[in-house]
Structures are given as C-alpha cells and as structure tokens.
Amino acid sequence: MAAKRVIPCLDVDKGRVVKGVSFRGLRDAGDPVELAARYVHEGADELVFLDVSASVEGRRATVDVVRRVAEEIDIPFTVGGGVRALEDAEALLRNGADKVSVNTMAVERPELISWLARRYGDQCVVVAIDAAREVSNGDPIYRVYTHSGTRPTELKAEDWAKRAAELGAGELLVTSIDRDGRQQGYDVELLSRITRSVSVPVIASGGAGTLEDFHTAISVGGADAVLAASVFHYRTFYIRQVKEYLWSRGIEVRL
Predict the structure, then answer these.
(1) Closest CA to 232 of 48, 47, 39
(2) Long-range contacts of 139-142 (CB under 8 A, 24+ apart)
(3) pTM of the model
(4) Catalytic: 130?
(5) High-pLDDT (> 70) share of the chain, %
(6) What angle in degrees, to the nearest 10, is found between the helix axes of 211-219 and 188-195?
(7) Does the annotation mark 13 as catalytic?
(8) Can you tell me the mean pLDDT for 184-203?
(9) Distance between CA atoms of residues 138 and 116, nearest Å
(10) Which candidate in 13, 45, 88, 130 is catalytic?
(11) Gap between the Cα atoms of 234 and 157, Å rounded
(12) DSSP strand E in the chain: where?
C-alpha cells in the first residue's frame, strides 16, 4: 500500500497566502515563498498552490509567484487557478509546477481534462472538486460549485468525480465548502462517496482541526492524502507531528 501523504495548501490572492471560512472572509496568512520553504523543512510530501481569485477574475494564475515558490522547494508541486487552455497549463509547468489543478474550466469544458492528460500524462492532471451538502427530495446530496465556490452547478460530486476520472484525471482534490476553514473535521461522507466511485487517488481538503481528523479522513473517508491550510499556517500542528500521529495509528507515511 502506498504511503499516505500530508500536503499543505497555499491559497494565494494578489501574491499573498490567504485563508478564510467556506471560501469567504479571506485574511492574510503570510508570504508564499517563506511558507513553502518552511513546509519543505517540516517534511511535507507535496505542496498545493491555488490562485483563488484567478477563475473569478478570468485570468491565469500568477506565474511569477509560482516560479518563486518552485525555486524554493524540491517536492511535487501542484498549481491551480485560471487554467482555461493547454497554454495556461504549459505556462505553469514551464515555471515549476509538476501537476496542474483544474476546476471551473474542467466543469465548463470537460474535454480539457482529456486534452491535458493526452498532452502531459494523467499523472500531471488534478481535478479539484468543491462541493457543498444540501437536501434534495429528502436525501442529502453534494453539489459541485465552480468559481471559487460561488457558482452552483447541476453536478453531484460523486458523479462528476467518476466522469473526471474517466476523462483522464490522475488525481482528485476534494474540498468540502461547508467545512473549509472551520476546523470541525473533514466531511467523511463526501469523501466516502467519492472514494467508492473512483480508483484514482483522492486528496481530502476542508476541515482539519485535530490530529484525529487527519486519521479519520484516511481510515473512514478512504483518502489517499490529507491537505490542510489553517492548522499549518498558524502552527496549530506541524507536518511531522501529523505524520507521527498517523504512524502511531497504523497509517503508513513517509517520516
């Protein structure tokens, strides 16, 4: 069994790392280059960089910041935000990204997933899924949102996850909008629905608040990796601390 990964996330807006609650009320959390270097030192398995306003503003991710971060790290680096075409992905990969994350445009033009997978290999393609829980006809569903969680779609999370994997996504980054920034635990029902639907790796995002939350996302939700921001940015936990806890609970990690 592959080792589970612990991944810090840099949500970047106007060149600074920010963090909010359910994608709202963003506040400054530091310099992306400094945080990236710190996370490498702490033992992060990978790093995710998301330009959170790129899709809303209709622009590419801030390439110069991506380049500066990439120069400071030697771990796999996923970058997303504003990827609308192959040229956008090419710019990110040329400036240090190892993987490209797509969300809004993947929903609007699903063929983009296949184009990226054929051009760069599915190992380079991460489809990000932002979902919120609601009740429909008495049953809970998870609705997919785009544009940094501001626009609802007609898609159910598990259906879209399956379709994205079929189109060539090598990995899925699944974020609970309801849990984001609240530190009340990952949404394991959302995770379970998706991990049961696909065979590609799934990264859990949104809600880490305790060490046990990381364990539950893996042991109950079926996640292959756990991603967090607030608890790492504000030093609630250190990455090695999370890894040592997971190891003590029988989860294989890279120490």
Answers:
(1) 39
(2) 140/189, 142/190, 142/193
(3) 0.94
(4) yes
(5) 93
(6) 30
(7) no
(8) 98
(9) 38
(10) 130
(11) 30
(12) 5-13, 16-21, 24-30, 47-51, 77-80, 99-102, 125-136, 139-146, 151-156, 171-176, 202-205, 225-228
